């Protein structure tokens, strides 16, 4: 997908060049030496007496250019330690009416006037360094969250605790998601005894995506880690929890790599939870909405819920009608038009179209036979509810066990925050009925 990388990067590089040029034009004024400082240095040089020895002129230090009477006036002197060379150089001598005299370093140290100067300027104090922590911590690719240790003691069911301890829930983030955004989901799973892995893509990797490039190499690392973990002990399982089309497509790439590496790994997948997805076709309008929401974040209309969300928070059947929704601002509407035209061109690139078709084919017809749960909303401005419902019906037709919950009024990938009770009840029921079947059998 080299063409996509070039198309996406050129406007970004141009914008960066403009920013750097504007910043560079200010450098002479920001970093030029102040006039007053130059004058003080000039006066300092003039205060040094001219008759110096020939050896001094050949090996003169920068210290010899600064008058001791002017030294204390420099503000930076009080914060640094000045290196004094072991050479001969002129110093002021009050008994000779400021005539220069050449003395060695030992006599310099013993000079009372210079000692007083050093003490007043605090040059004799050791240099102290202030360590400042970096303002931002580099974003990690994925993070492993261990279950809370006291959970197994409280549960009381040894079979259920063992099943949870052998299950990893892999959370695959949406476009623009960071580790902090998935933390609340991971904490919910770990508080119930599950392991959790949170996986996110940096926006830079998505924008510069290439077939077989950095993004797919990152997925390969995750797949290798999961495969190694599954092979450590018999009876370990995986549950995938995906967010938006980005997380869902990442799940498809993982399935594809499992099939190539070891098809038996597919049998270890016990369930898949799909939040705010899918759209099982390269739809330019959907992709434009997703990228617009990722760029604008809270300023996007996609983050706004339905104004009629005060209606009862009960589970709604598939096929519920969408209510009237707010319209995007003029700037966002213009951005959507541009992005939609852009993706219409991108999806016609043969390598891009072929790669997407392969992954979508795996997700449509080659998913493992595990149960699926779809959480979506009629108020979602990124992933239309009718696309989700259409895919659900297709999965049911080929014999998949599918559950679905329409939250009706909540925005894209924001169902948990807006309605945590309904969200967690759906997760609990799905995990108990479809994943932790041994717990029900033992009771």
Automatic annotation (TrEMBL):
Keywords: Membrane, Nucleus, Transmembrane, Transmembrane helix. It is a single-pass membrane protein. The keyword Transmembrane helix applies. GO terms for cellular component: nuclear outer membrane. It is found in: Nucleus outer membrane. InterPro entries: AB_hydrolase_fold, DUF829_TMEM53. Its main location: nucleus. Belongs to the TMEM53 family. This is Transmembrane protein 53. It comes from Dillenia turbinata.
């Amino acid at each position: 997908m080299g063409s996509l990388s070039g198309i996406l990067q050129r406007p970004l590089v141009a914008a960066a060049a403009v920013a750097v040029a504007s910043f560079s034009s200010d450098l002479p004024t920001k970093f030029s030496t102040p006039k007053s400082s130059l004058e003080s240095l000039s006066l300092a040089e003039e205060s040094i007496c001219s008759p110096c020895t020939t050896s001094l002129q050949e090996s003169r230090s920068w210290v010899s250019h600064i008058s001791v009477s002017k030294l204390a006036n420099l503000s930076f002197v009080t914060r640094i330690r000045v290196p004094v060379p072991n050479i001969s150089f002129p110093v002021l001598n009050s008994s000779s009416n400021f005539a220069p005299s050449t003395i060695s370093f030992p006599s310099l140290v013993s000079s009372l006037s210079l000692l007083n100067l050093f003490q007043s300027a605090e040059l004799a104090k050791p240099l102290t360094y202030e360590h400042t922590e970096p303002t931002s911590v580099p974003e990690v690719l994925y993070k492993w969250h261990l279950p809370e240790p006291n959970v197994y003691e409280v549960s009381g069911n040894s079979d259920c605790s063992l099943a949870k301890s052998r299950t990893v829930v892999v959370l695959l983030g949406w476009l623009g998601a960071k580790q902090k955004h998935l933390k609340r989901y991971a904490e919910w799973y770990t508080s119930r005894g599950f392991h959790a892995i949170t996986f996110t893509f940096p926006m830079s990797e998505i924008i510069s995506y290439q077939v077989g490039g950095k993004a797919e190499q990152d997925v390969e690392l995750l797949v290798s880690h999961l495969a190694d973990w599954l092979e450590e002990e018999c009876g370990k399982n995986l549950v995938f929890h995906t967010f938006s089309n980005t997380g869902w497509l990442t799940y498809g790439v993982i399935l594809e790599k499992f099939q190539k590496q070891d098809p038996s790994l597919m049998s270890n997948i016990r369930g898949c939870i799909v939040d705010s997805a899918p759209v099982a076709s390269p739809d330019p309008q959907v992709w434009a909405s997703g990228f617009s929401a990722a760029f604008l974040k809270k300023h996007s209309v996609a983050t706004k819920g339905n104004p009629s969300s005060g209606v009862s928070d009960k589970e709604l059947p598939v096929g519920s009608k969408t209510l009237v929704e707010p319209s995007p601002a003029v700037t966002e509407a213009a951005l959507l038009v541009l992005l939609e035209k852009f993706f219409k061109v991108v999806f016609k690139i043969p390598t891009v179209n072929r790669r997407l078709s392969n992954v979508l084919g795996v997700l449509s017809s080659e998913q493992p036979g595990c149960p699926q749960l779809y959480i979506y909303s009629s108020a979602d401005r990124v992933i239309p509810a009718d696309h989700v419902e259409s895919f659900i019906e297709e999965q049911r037709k080929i014999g998949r066990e599918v559950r679905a919950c329409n939250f009706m009024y909540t925005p894209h990938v924001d169902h948990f925050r807006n309605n945590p009770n309904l969200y967690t009840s759906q997760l609990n029921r799905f995990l108990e009925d479809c994943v932790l079947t041994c717990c029900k059998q033992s009771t």
